[in-house]
Amino acid sequence: MTHLEVREELFRELAHHSAVVTIITDNSFTVRYASHTASVFFTCETILAIAKEFFDFIEPNQIANWKEAFFNFKINGHTNHTPESILLKNKSKVYAVEMVYLPAGSEQSNWMIRLSDVTEQQLKEESLLKTTEHFDQIFYKTTHDLKAPIRSALGLLNLAEKTTEEQRTEYLQLIRANLLKLDSFLDELNDFFSGNRLEVKREPIDFNKIAEEELKFVSGLAEHKQISISLDVSQKSTFHSDIFRVKTILTNLIANAIKYFDTNKKFAYVKIYILVNAEQAIIKVEDNGVGIEPQYLSRIFDRFFRANHAVPGTGMGLFILKDTVDRLNGKVEVSSLKDVGTTFCITLPNLVRPTIL
Hints:
- With about 350 residues, this protein is of the alpha+beta class.
- The protein has helices at about 5-15, 40, 45-50, 65-75, 120-160, 165-195, 205-225, 245-260, 315-325, and strands spanning about 20-25, 30-35, 85-90, 95-105, 110-115, 200, 205, 225-235, 240, 270-275, 280-285, 330-335, 340-350, 355.
- The strands form four sheets. Strands 2-1-5-4-3 form a five-stranded antiparallel β-sheet. It has a five-stranded mixed β-sheet with strand order 8-10-11-13-12, covered by helices on one side.
- Residues about 5 and about 80-85 have low confidence and may be disordered.
């Protein structure tokens, strides 16, 4: 046995017993060698893959990605035995791929492909990303909901400074109610974080009660801006969903309508309609504010997108609204005309069973 044959035998022995899948093909990607672990990748006995084309074992919708990776590796001028690490999918698995181009002469060349299954690692990373994104949204919602009663109280203070003693007492009572609501919200937030933070809870919801509570959050701000708010609730049956998230939706919709009111209109209004039956809850919030230009309607739920830069904001409000509705298996529809107003319609299913997202 020559020195070269000994080296080849040693390589095959090491490759054969490694957890990493090793495949060698010729320049036309015909499989010439595969370690025994390649059977997982091929989904058949390794011996059955020999002499077949490598791409015969790739999912059809992924073949173009694999071919592009091979082409880029070869065309970018990598030297012999220089691997390029990439991530590619095949049969619902994710592989970290190392490619080595082995020119064997003018008539024949070889590819060595090493595959490490990183599916579990990818799932963990995606789960971590999803959790981090969820906490980012909760943080934004927390600061948003903390600001609402504070701004409302400040609006009431401005009104109290310019009115009679009798009216001032009424405003002080409203300020007290706002602060008590803020305290209650902090308790709810503490309860939320003490449990499963991604779990969607199933709780009975009284829409009259929670809608009136949410309106107290913004009553001072609405009065300060001279915005009329009306509420019409018709609940004909018991409804179950996640109270914390339903409140998030209501707060966001109402605050958004107030935020984008039209200063040029003599009579500004926000109308809230809630219809609840055994199957679903429909929440409709209509305003005659500044409206949204048609070219922006398809983008308003994008993260950080702002259709109106004249009003301060982060572009996260409607993104969180849509995400919260999705988590409750609901849907959101919006119609708007520039300088006329906007209507949001949220449909939420009655969660008869606990759901975890």
